[in-house]
Design brief:
- A two-stranded antiparallel ribbon has the order 1-2.
- By secondary structure, it is α+β, with helices and mostly antiparallel strands.
- The protein contains two helices and two strands, in the order ααββ.
- Helices cover about 40% and strands about 15% of the residues.
Length: about 100
């Protein structure tokens, strides 16, 4: 199954890790229930679950001085964006070091 051609996709943001774990268990049980029900319909095939457990995420807020320093470090590795060129649906970034 191609993950980019899903007909149904469910996502949820949960700040409390314990509640997120409980929610994940509920979603998995509902998905399994739905899979068996969908497979009962004539013409429905290849029903699968691509559920992945939630990843923990850390969000940081930097003060302006740290943000400027981070930008300088990034530009040291990757360069500064000098130009962006649209080519069809693609976006080409021209980086200069």
């Amino acid at each position: 199954m191609n993950p980019y051609s899903r007909s149904l996709d469910v996502a949820r943001l949960q700040r409390d890790a314990r509640r997120a774990t409980r929610f994940s268990a509920i979603v998995r049980a509902r998905a399994q229930w739905g899979e068996t029900r969908l497979a009962d319909y004539a013409g429905v095939f290849d029903v699968s679950d691509s559920f992945l457990p939630a990843k923990r995420e850390l969000r940081l807020e930097l003060d302006p001085r740290a943000e400027a320093l981070g930008r300088q470090i990034r530009q040291g590795f990757y360069g500064a964006e000098a130009q962006r060129i649209q080519r069809g649906r693609d976006d080409i970034r021209v980086m200069v070091r």
